[in-house]
Amino acid sequence: MTATPFLVLRGGESVLHFAGGPVTLHRPDKEHHIPLAAISFVHAEGRSLAIVLTASGANEPTIYRVTGVDEAAALAFGEAVTAALPADPAPDGAALVTTRTPGPPEPAEAPAAPGVPWKPVAVTVLLLALAVFAVFSVIAVAAARG
Predict the structure, then answer these.
(1) How many angstroms separate the CA atoms of 32 and 27, rounded?
(2) In what order do the strands lie in the sheet with 98-100?
(3) Contact between 40 and 55 (Cβ < 8 Å)
(4) Contact predicate 7/74, CB 8 Å
(5) Residue 1 pLDDT
(6) How far is 122 from 35, CA to CA, in rounded Å?
(7) 49 and 66 in contact (C-beta within 8 Å)?
(8) pLDDT by residue for the chain (146 residues), tens digit each?
(9) Cα Dmax for the chain
(10) CA-to-CA distance for 18 and 72, rounded, in angstroms?
(11) Beta strand 39-45 pairing with 31-34
(12) What is the per-residue pLDDT for 56?
């Protein structure tokens, strides 16, 4: 069994991923998962790569194009995907593609002070505040007595 390498093709704000399964096209506004059975052919020409989906005779095929890519990388990517295409593709590739809108990026956790764990510091500050309160309470009671 031959392992398919994980391939990444970048062009502008678009990124294609292929690791033997569906081709994933990441764009800033959408992410497309394109099953191999949905692909009619892949065409690399110069600094662009087109993934052409299968379509019935009545419909125009859907084409996903990435431009501004490295020419040699586009050829390698196209050859790898083409070699993995099934013998019997689906008749309507567009129906097999799933598209989702990426969510907002995960918020980064606030960095802790280097070398100082925050929980022991918080407990120490709380205990110190209670001690100061106790001292002032004793002084207030003593002053009230006279």
Answers:
(1) 8
(2) 7-11, 14-18, 23-26, 31-34, 98-100
(3) yes
(4) no
(5) 47
(6) 53
(7) yes
(8) 456 678 999 999 999 999 999 999 999 999 999 999 999 999 999 999 999 999 987 789 999 999 999 999 999 999 999 999 999 999 999 999 999 998 776 665 655 555 555 566 666 766 777 777 777 777 777 777 76
(9) 103
(10) 16
(11) unpaired
(12) 85
Reduce the secondary structure of 90-115 to three states and give it as a string. Answer: CCCHHHCCEEECCCCCCCCCCCCCCC
Residue 96: Cβ within 10 Å count: 18
Query: What is the per-residue pLDDT for 72?
Result: 95
Distance in angstroms (rounded) separating the CA atoms of residues 82 and 39: 9
**Per residue in 56-88, pLDDT tens?**
877 899 999 999 999 999 999 999 999 999 999
Per DSSP, 145 falls in state H
Where b means 16+ CB within 10 Å and e means fewer, 125-140 reads eeeeeeeeeeeeeeee
One-letter amino acid of 12: G
Q: Which token pair is 61?
A: 């095929």
The tokens for 13 are: 């704000």
Supply 63's token pair. Answer: 């084409």
